[in-house]
Write a structure and sequence with these properties.
The structure is a homodimer.
Chain A (H helix, E strand, L loop, with lengths): L3 H6 L3 E5 L4 E3 L7 E7 L1 E7 L5 E8 L3 E2 L2 H4 L7 E4 L3 E7 H10 L1 H27 L2 H15 L4 E2 L2 E4 L3 H8 L3 H13 L4 E3 L2 E3 L1
Antiparallel strand pairs in A: 1-8, 2-7, 3-6, 3-8, 4-5, 4-7, 9-10, 10-12, 11-12
Helix pairs in contact in A: 3-4, 4-5, 6-7
Chain B binds a DNA duplex through helix 7.
DNA sequence: ACTTATTTATGACATAGGTCATAAGGTCAC
DNA sequence: GTGACCTTATGACCTATGTCATAAATAAGT
């Protein structure tokens, strides 16, 4: 996260997106740096049959879609608001200017990319070599450790729909529903009022 | 890649690793920055049954395992030499010093991480939503575009064993062998003397 | 309030890819 | 040079997960 005041010094603009609205599309060139003020954004891919894969979900104070700003490549995925969201947008040129003029910020960016890479490494190994139960638990525990998932008296609330869980782990909804039930029977998590707690 | 002279100014040390030798292990803290002078290194994970997943293979002039240097986290995977290799190693402290004293280098690091993130995004979507034929072609085409795979008169040589291909895509060797044969029949690639060309 | 869409749920059945067994050609170590 | 191991290969069979159909509970939109 970059300080809002600093971004605004480089002409950042606030922009609102309705739920389901597309922020940018796969294979397009990157034109802006985006940081979330409020709401949530997912980055995703669709295969030829329309099956979705969610690369990640981002929340307030997080940025997303930076890598192509530094490469001569297009976006590897789409970005879409999962709730009504307010974003700070800053043009590629201004963003690169900001970084070169504020070297400390680049360490910041490195940390953000390093974190994201860490998540991708963990999930890649998970998706390729583990069964559905292991995959779900890993996703839940990772989300609890590194995202802003809240703890209440039932445990940590996994604030994701079954469909989203499936699309984050490469499983179908039905499999997620069945696996969650099995995990509940095994005592690995709780289902209260259809919500998952860990 | 960071200039060797610059690394040596910060007390980088040359170190040789035999094929199959471990460079660092999963869950350990990061102590050094590593850059390959010659040879090749893979980063991998094993599941409980010993199945391997290869996060990536790195060649001369590439670095690997940087993210945990910037985070308070351990390595998400192991690093192992796939051939006899010579590496340049520089301690975490010296490396961080190098970066802060040479702001231009941090842009360099950002680009490296951005590239790696791009690969992971593409492969993650591939592994979770596409069938084996699609996965293999994607891996081959990505490797050709972004790695140093050489073209000869048969086409681009895919310099990976069937086992490595499987461990990079989350498929078993037998499946890889069968899929490659199918792809050959479909004219998507050539098998000459057991080697794959695209 | 009423319609429409989303989310959770469950059962029956299908299949891509995994598993296991076996083998032959290559490569490496000593 | 020979034994051990790795790589490619193929067949028979199995199973975790996907697919399809159906439905009720909940949420969202007008």
């Amino acid at each position: 996260m970059i300080e809002i005041e600093l971004l605004e010094k480089y002409d950042a603009v606030r922009k609102c997106y309705k739920k389901s609205e597309i922020i940018f599309e796969i294979d397009h060139l990157a034109t802006h740096y985006y940081q979330i003020i409020s709401g949530a954004v997912k980055m995703n891919n669709y295969n030829d049959e329309g099956r979705e894969f969610i690369q990640g979900i981002f929340y307030a104070n997080q940025s997303f879609g930076e890598p192509p700003l530094f490469l001569d490549r297009t976006y590897p995925a789409n970005a879409e608001a999962v709730e009504d969201s307010e974003l700070l947008c800053i043009s590629k040129n201004n963003f690169l200017k900001l970084i070169t003029e504020n070297p400390a910020i680049s360490i910041n960016i490195i940390e953000i990319l390093a974190q994201r890479l860490h998540y991708k490494s963990v999930m890649a190994a998970e998706i390729s070599t583990h069964d559905s139960e292991h995959r779900l638990l890993q996703l839940f525990d990772y989300s609890i450790s590194y995202l802003n998932f809240k703890k209440d008296n039932n445990g940590y609330a996994i604030d994701l729909t079954r469909q989203q869980i499936g699309n984050l782990t490469g499983l179908r909804v039905e499999t997620v529903i069945r696996t969650i039930k099995t995990l509940e029977k095994k005592g690995e998590l709780k289902i209260i009022n259809r919500k998952v707690y860990r």
